[in-house]
Amino acid sequence: MAGCLLFAVEAKAISGNEWKRLPQTGQQAYVVGIVDGWVYVSVIALRYKEPSLTTDAVKCTLEMPYQQVFAIVEKYMDDNPAVWHYKMAELVFIATGKVCKAKSK
């Protein structure tokens, strides 16, 4: 553990403004990284019998191809420039959560 901490690098969260300045492939990679992280949260939550840690947005996106998730996030960002200063991980969660909530109705 100490060795891992010794060589750890900073994993900087970026804002929506920073995300918008990335090339499209960078934007896609960032969104995929966030969604991939959700998969592991879900696995851990289920392993420890804490399904409440998984949300509808996480479950919903597990059924979608990455390109579809990216399209949802890209549309949300294009439609909501007023929120670009927030952390991108939160914005991905909000964008997918809105779509997944509407999908479940």
Rg estimate, integer Å? 15 Å
Q: Element order, helices and strands?
A: HHHHHH
Total helix count? 6
Give the strand content. under 5%
Helix content: 55-70%
Form type = globular
The strand count comes to: 0
Number of domains: 1
Largest pleated sheet: none
**Span of the ends, CA to CA:** 45 Å
In terms of per-residue confidence, which ranges show pLDDT below 50 for 5 or more consecutive residues? 1-10
Give the mean pLDDT.
79
Assign the structural class, choosing from mainly alpha, mainly beta, alpha/beta, alpha+beta, or little secondary structure. mainly alpha
Write structural notes for this entry.
The chain has 105 residues and is mostly helical. It has one domain. Helix content is 70%, strand content 0%. The protein has helices at 2-6, 16-21, 24-47, 56-62, 66-79, 88-104. Helix 3 packs across helix 4 (56-62), helix 4 crosses helix 6 and helix 5 (66-79) crosses helix 6 (88-104). The chain is globular. The protein starts with a helix and ends with a helix. The model is unreliable at 1-10 (pLDDT under 50).
